Amino acid sequence: MPTVTKNLLIINVLVFLATIVAQSYGLDLARYLGLHFFLADNFNIAQLITYMFMHGGFTHLFFNMFALWMFGRILEQVWGPKRFLFYYLVCGIGAGFIQEIVQYVHYEMVLSAYTSVNTGYSVIPMGEYLNMMTTVGASGAIYAILLGFGMLFPNQPLFIFPLPFPIKAKYFVIGYALIELYAGFANNPGDNVAHFAHLGGMIFGFILIMYWRKKDRGNGYYYN
């Protein structure tokens, strides 16, 4: 397994285990390492990086790491470790940045008119609620990896459960992007997934790949 992919897997798993241990001592690492809304008291600029290594549960971690192992190692073998790590981190930071913008729009359009929020369990001050707006997970960077694979190997057939037939990588990526776009605008109650962060990772990934294609044709269209 390529070095960067392997180390990213190890770091994510170790941080997840550290989160479980910290919880047993009454310490919530997401309060410090998760990405908070930038108007919240708990926000720190370093969280744009640290949030990528936090996960909300085992399932969240497993699927992100499975996709990293499945597609990330291929991109690293093609790009090399430095470019792959740069791509991963920039897209993850970009996903967090887009998430901050989306939260700010929601704040300006809805929350700014109130001084408190009814959570369904209690009424809490707005400042406390803003601190609850926390994003965790590597999903933004992972969606960028999916996009990268789809752009480098657009016609590679993939078997996606539960589809009984293979689907080309380019259609798989487009389908995922459309699902995330729909879910983001649907804004269903109880849906706590950062759909626009996923799209943000894909957007930054697309920009980077197109820039590299223009700058260096040898790192452009790659494989059919």
From TrEMBL:
Swiss-Prot/TrEMBL keywords: Hydrolase, Membrane, Protease, Transmembrane, Transmembrane helix
Primary location recorded for the protein, binned into one broad class: membrane
A Gene Ontology cellular-component term: membrane
UniProt-annotated location(s): Membrane
Membrane topology field: Multi-pass membrane protein
GO biological process: proteolysis
Transmembrane regions: 48-72, 84-105, 129-149, 193-212
Domain Peptidase S54 rhomboid span(s) in chain numbering: 45-212
Annotated GO MF terms: serine-type endopeptidase activity
Entry-linked InterPro entries: Peptidase_S54_rhomboid_dom, Rhomboid-like_sf, Rhomboid_protease_S54
Similarity annotation: Belongs to the peptidase S54 family.
Name this polypeptide is given: Rhomboid family intramembrane serine protease
